[in-house]
Design a protein that fits this description.
Two copies of one chain form a homodimer.
Chain A (H helix, E strand, L loop, with lengths): L1 H4 L4 E4 L8 H12 L6 E4 L11 E2 L11 E4 L6 H10 L4 E4 L8 H17 L3 E3 L5 E4 L4 E2 L6 H9 L5 E5 L2 H11 L6 E6 L8 H10 L5 E6 L5 H9 L5 E5 L4 H8 L9 H11 L2 E2 L5 H4 L1 H6 L7 E6 L3 H12 L3 E2 L4 H9 L3 E3 L4 E3 L5 H13 L5 E5 L6 H16 L3 E4 L4 H11 L3 E2 L2 H22 L19
Parallel strand pairs in A: 1-2, 1-4, 2-3, 4-5, 5-6, 9-10, 9-11, 11-12, 12-13, 14-15, 14-17, 14-18, 18-19, 19-20
Antiparallel strand pairs in A: 7-8, 7-10, 16-17
Helix pairs in contact in A: 3-4, 7-8, 8-10, 13-18, 15-16
């Protein structure tokens, strides 16, 4: 699998100098935007060079060895190119072209031809009907149609540690774009399309052992093999977050016309996630917003939360959300409340803790220490309004204290989303964009903690129907 | 009520030149930031002028008549000032000070003293424990602690037509901040605090007949008089959107410690909203995000939605959301699908309509006309990715076509929130920030349409338990 993300040499089949040729954009990205160090070849009828990639009419004409083939030729000619790849002993192929199993009986016949050759020669295939891969660390990327500025942006944060498997190209784009204004970055991204060979379980297994991947994010339109998914994911201890489309019949029908695949009963997917220790997401935006709770904060080991705010209304709003999410408002002992009152700035020392308009860093530090060392508190929901410049230092300090005390805080600044996103990007602090998102982050952090407990325990085979989720009515 | 938003003369009681005096910030806002045309007086012990507002020791020392008193003195002295206001024949008073019914028996006694005087003299009181009012049209504002830049921003969009009644100051700030990057603006805002006199029903009645108010938004921590609320709101035909904290016991407790008031059973509030034709909101962000569907689009008269996207994955995602929201995927007749196919750019002409990467404006116009004139379609959910500059023109054109054909579109651009907000602000197009928000906008548009039907009908007295909502499992 590593070869897909880190090939030594590449051929782009279907890259030519015709106007609007998508293959040419792949050559351009690999050769020019990414300055790929190894040889990159193009295959087209005229055997012409494309963006400085030497051109050949047949794959077998290429002189040197080739690690990876990227195919973006029309569906009808793809089986022939697969045969050429086999003859050239290329074992790793990305098929980006569409028109296969999502395209009726004719497409299905083409797919069958491909499968037969690939199986006979031990080839691994990614796609078809996909965007391929992006590896932000070595900057290898075989997406078509990518602009230079976007590529530069997407690979700028090369130290990212969230790896994605995404069944649709459109979701890849919104994910990369959204991470630009967040504190965590993408590591590897793979768009798996129709999954004729490599499927979600293969990718989970690979990301599970990939040393630079800390969190695995998935967008799925269907599941190819539920049993394989469960058995593979059960062995993976990293947080796995999955959004699946098709909760309703209408959604499933729309997804099926998009990337081929049988419609899965949504309840079965739900059950599979529970058995596999995969956290199912409620919205597509959670795919980029939630990983930061795992990467920037210690896990939430219990469900008792202290709410800390300088905007009284949000005490009530977040209390409602926490209870709905199956979490609990921590009960603070009288002596803890007295210590909070002693800081001299607290309007309300019972949880939620409502703070006056102080800008004293010492007061904030004292309060954080009191709450994070308190036995009745497992984690914080911090809602500090960005009303004064010192608040960003306060938030930075809170992040440090969380690590020092081994308890997490989900931080939501009750300001316009544009302002929150701006501060997050400029100061690299893990801010959530809504109180719902912050509460959900605590919920998934605790959920993953519970999953990791049973994965570490002896009993690695939970039975169908067993519930490893803590009580929750959803967000 | 008009006097609160448009007084001819004002006194700020408790404004002095002491450091950190909040009353002084009110004088500064009214006199300097807003260039208030009438006289503004200050009342303080030293009888000193504050920010060019002449100062007096007693309200009764002021030479000319006074329309409105704003009190921000300590709670203990407020009853005495109320008595002075009565003696001066001031009938409109804003009490911003806290420490009354939310502050235990002592505060409740002070509140009782105020009530007695006010009642005897026919005074109307706003608050206590509130921020007062902002009128973006004449720029009158008695909020304390407001910065010049914020005031300028908040009143810049003086033509706004959403009026708010908000029980908490913190929510006022996030609302104003959020509207800065949206296409609609605030008209009047009132923070009603403890509601010792003027309550939510009074404000609804006022906004209901206010000619410049098109949509009414509410943030409530409790309801003072449910029967009065229902009877008042039932006569109001404008869209009324209400977020109420306290859905859970913990939330209600937190709200009660913030602004005083009995805890209301949340189910009773739900029932009251249904009987009154008030749309209950699911999150605080909906208070600023949803009004634009009413102001920028025709109403959604039926529940059949056509989804139109150039990002295939979002066809499935939005179909799931529409069904969950109680809306329907429109069934397009074969001849409609043929006409869509004839544009030559459509991947999938069955709903959801999945478009290729065209940038032809004519194609977009043709598709919009086909869908908006189609009898099987009541409204659109448009999901155009901002991948090319022409897309913003496409969206502008769609808004025009919606008005021409009398059907709404909720528009979500599947891009990073920062990008969507930036385009919305710079191009003034009504974009929603998530697919959930766009679907919810269609849901509330249709809900309000159904409410307006029964309000226009003979039967204006729906019975308790009757359901005027269309089927929905929530967003």
């Amino acid at each position: 699998m590593e070869t897909f993300f880190n090939p030594a040499s590449v051929v782009v089949i279907g890259a030519s100098n015709s106007p609007f040729n998508l293959g040419a954009t792949i050559c351009r990205t690999i050769k020019h935007f990414a300055s790929f160090p190894g040889p990159v070849y193009a295959v087209n009828r005229k055997a012409e060079a494309v963006f400085d990639c030497p051109g050949y009419a047949q794959v077998t004409d290429i002189p040197g060895p080739v690690d990876l083939a990227v195919i973006i030729a029309p569906a009808a000619v793809v089986p022939d190119f697969i045969a050429q790849c086999a003859a050239k002993d290329i074992r790793h192929v990305v098929i980006e072209s569409s028109g296969f199993s999502e395209g009726g009986p004719k497409g299905q016949a083409l797919q069958h031809a491909i499968d037969t050759i690939a199986k006979a020669h031990g080839m691994r295939i990614l796609g078809p009907n996909c965007l391929g891969v992006l590896n932000s660390r070595n900057r290898f990327c075989c997406f078509y149609g990518i602009f230079e500025e976007d590529f530069a942006n997407f690979t700028r944060k090369g130290g990212g540690s969230v790896s994605y498997l995404i069944q649709s190209g459109g979701i890849v784009v919104i994910m990369l774009e959204s991470l630009l204004s967040d504190v965590v970055g993408a590591n590897k991204i793979v768009s798996i399309g129709n999954k004729c060979d490599i499927d979600e379980a293969d990718m989970i297994a690979y990301y599970g052992q990939d040393p630079t991947t800390e969190v695995i994010g998935m967008y799925l339109e269907n599941v190819k093999d539920g049993r394989k998914l469960i058995e593979t994911a059960r062995d993976v201890k990293k947080p796995m977050l999955a959004f699946k489309v098709g909760r309703t019949g209408e959604g499933a029908r729309a997804a099926m016309s998009h990337t081929a695949g049988m419609v899965n009963d949504d309840r079965i997917f739900d059950s599979a996630c529970r058995q596999a220790g995969i956290i199912r997401l409620h919205s597509i935006s959670e795919l980029h917003s939630l990983p930061k709770i795992f990467i920037t904060m210690p896990p939430l080991k219990g469900s008792r939360i202290a709410v800390f705010t300088n905007s009284g209304a949000f005490g009530g709003i977040t209390a409602d959300l926490l209870i709905a999410a199956g979490l609990k408002m921590a009960r603070l002992a009288p002596e803890v409340q007295q210590r909070l009152q002693a800081t001299g700035q607290v309007f309300n020392a019972a949880n939620p803790i409502d703070l006056g308009p102080t800008i004293s860093m010492q007061t904030f530090q004292d309060i954080f220490d009191i709450l994070l060392t308190c036995d009745e508190v497992d984690g914080l929901l911090a809602v500090p309004s960005l009303w004064h410049p010192v608040m960003i230092e306060v938030i930075t300090e809170l992040v440090k204290k969380c690590h020092a005390h081994g308890k997490p805080a989900a931080i939501y600044t009750p300001n316009a989303a544009a302002k929150t996103i701006g501060y997050r990007t400029n100061h690299q602090v893990p801010l959530f964009e809504s109180p719902e998102e912050a509460v959900r982050a605590l919920q998934v952090s605790h959920q993953h903690y519970l999953y990791s407990l049973w994965k570490e325990s002896e009993d690695l085979a939970p039975k169908e129907g067993e519930n490893y989720e803590f009580a929750s009515s959803g967000a």
